[in-house]
Design goal:
494 residues, alpha/beta, 18 strands, 46% helix
């Protein structure tokens, strides 16, 4: 049974961990590190990583302690770590140990750019982008998983340990750890969707990937549909037994529980920060900079990825201006997000498409003192992101497919004024938890534009009613509740 813990916080999490894990060591594993170091003006500085995973798990690790193992990708990372590649973080208030694992350019290109992001990412998102399967990428993916396993086994030794593996970069890792440290309890959370069995079946290394994942004691996905897809894939590809009463797969004598755990955010921290003086000052400067005093602001923030539906969003804004010319000069759409994976051709093509659409819309509608689309294609400070959330009349979250989408939950957490409308794709996992969001279909441009128009015209009373219910949902099911539910399941396995 899932543990239900409302209004969980770091203090409750610490107490819960002591009770449930007792003297076990906790290790989190991810590709992206939560903090990185860089050189500026001949001095070493540090920065917090931006992204859903780091945003979600860093407060958990600060509350619990332990180790976080990740790829050390910052240019000055090696300058601040000890001989074992370790450094205490956060750098200004150390709470846990970051274990950095360094990869060569060849390793990173094969494992990350190659197998993970040209094969598994499009395969799992079913995003109408053909997966690229290259044997050398697979071999490097396996080698990097082995490299991580070797480092982790040294930390674990013979200690009682819970290893919490994150995402599709490490499908092989749980089995590798179990082989060397059978006393370790392994859990993995798959942060992206799991596709239907017939789609996953095209992967040349499907059996190896499934075998690696079934090395876990607990395997989590965002929603039940993804769990069902995974169970169907295992049934189709392996000689395994499904135990529906325990929601488990029994494979080669080992049982793996497969359970949905909808990930969330630190609601209280975001709400508090959104009311802080730095955020309020940033709101005032942005209101002036963007000329928002008498305008409707639409806002989207995404990594530039083809799964996020950014071109479809721009086409909807274009159609909105065409159908409702009264918004010309009165509406600003702010699209924020930094480019990523630009070395992969599909991402380079996406960036070009977004730039072309943006230029075309602005060329056709701009006036002497107004442009309808404003882009921030760079990393933004969290205070700036929160200020944009606070200023937005409508936050548009329109992925073509998304495991959960934490932007939706961050926006709701930031709206301490109980105003604003969340327009949310039906194809984001968050849509199951947030029925008070305005549903949109990013594939249907006309309906998309009309829903945005509905959002703009929504009354303050209806906005407040919807926002209060969504805030209550995110408050009660925050990131600490997510972690407690997972750790509670792990303790039940023992």
């Amino acid at each position: 049974m899932r543990t239900t813990l409302q209004h969980a916080n770091p203090e409750k999490l610490q107490s819960f961990v002591r009770e449930k894990l007792e003297d076990s060591l906790l290790i989190v594993v991810s590709n992206r590190e939560p903090y990185f170091h860089f050189v500026e003006n001949d001095e070493i500085h540090w920065k917090r990583s931006v992204g859903g995973l780091s945003t979600a798990l860093d407060p958990v690790m600060q509350a619990v302690g332990g180790y976080w193992a990740a790829h050390g990708s910052g240019e000055a990372d090696a300058e601040v770590t000890d001989k074992n590649g370790q450094v205490r973080v956060p750098p200004d208030d150390p709470r846990y140990t970051l274990q950095r694992i360094y990869l060569s350019k060849k390793e990173s290109e094969g494992y990350y750019d190659g197998l993970a992001n040209q094969a598994l990412w499009p395969l799992c998102h079913n995003a109408f982008t053909r997966p690229v399967f290259v044997q050398s990428h697979w071999e490097m993916y396996r080698a990097v998983n082995e490299k991580f396993a070797e480092s982790l086994v040294k930390i674990v030794g013979e200690r009682k340990t819970v290893v919490f593996v994150q995402d599709y970069h490490f499908a092989l890792l749980p089995r590798m750890i179990k082989r060397e440290c059978p006393q370790a309890v392994c859990a993995q959370f798959w942060h992206i969707p799991w596709p239907p069995p017939e789609l996953f079946g095209i992967c040349p290394w499907k059996k190896e990937l499934l075998d690696g994942m079934l090395g876990n004691d607990l395997l989590g996905f965002h929603v039940q549909d993804y769990c069902n897809n995974f169970l169907g894939t295992v049934e189709r590809e392996l000689e395994a037994r499904h135990d529906p009463e325990r929601a488990a797969v029994v494979y080669n004598g080992h049982s793996t529980r497969v359970v949905p755990f909808p990930i969330s955010v630190d609601f209280e921290a975001i709400s508090c920060r959104a009311q802080s003086d730095p955020c309020l000052r940033r709101m005032e400067s942005l209101r002036s900079e963007l000329g928002l005093a008498d305008k409707v602001m639409l806002f989207g923030i995404d990594r530039l990825d083809y799964t996020k539906g950014i071109p479809d969003r721009l086409r909807a804004v274009d159609l909105l201006l065409e159908r409702y010319p009264e918004y010309i000069g009165k509406l600003v759409f702010v699209q924020a997000g930094s480019p990523s994976r630009q070395q992969i051709p599909t991402y380079e093509a996406l960036i070009q498409e977004v730039e072309t659409l943006t230029s075309d819309i602005n060329r056709r509608y701009r006036t002497d003192d107004w442009s309808p689309v404003v882009t921030f294609h760079r990393d933004l400070s969290f205070d700036m992101v929160l200020a944009l959330y606070r200023l937005a009349d409508v936050c548009i979250v329109s992925p073509l497919q998304d495991g959960m989408n934490l932007v939706a939950k961050e926006f709701v957490s930031a709206r301490v004024d109980e105003k604003g409308v969340l327009a949310l794709s039906r194809f984001a996992g968050a849509a199951e938890e947030m029925p008070d969001a305005l549903p949109i279909n990013p594939y249907a441009t006309e309906d998309f534009a009309e829903q945005v128009h509905t959002a703009i015209r929504m009354t303050d009373d209806e906005q407040g009613l919807r926002m209060r219910r969504m805030r209550q949902q995110v408050r009660e099911n925050n990131i600490y509740t997510w972690t407690m539910n997972i750790l509670g399941q792990l303790s039940d396995l023992g």
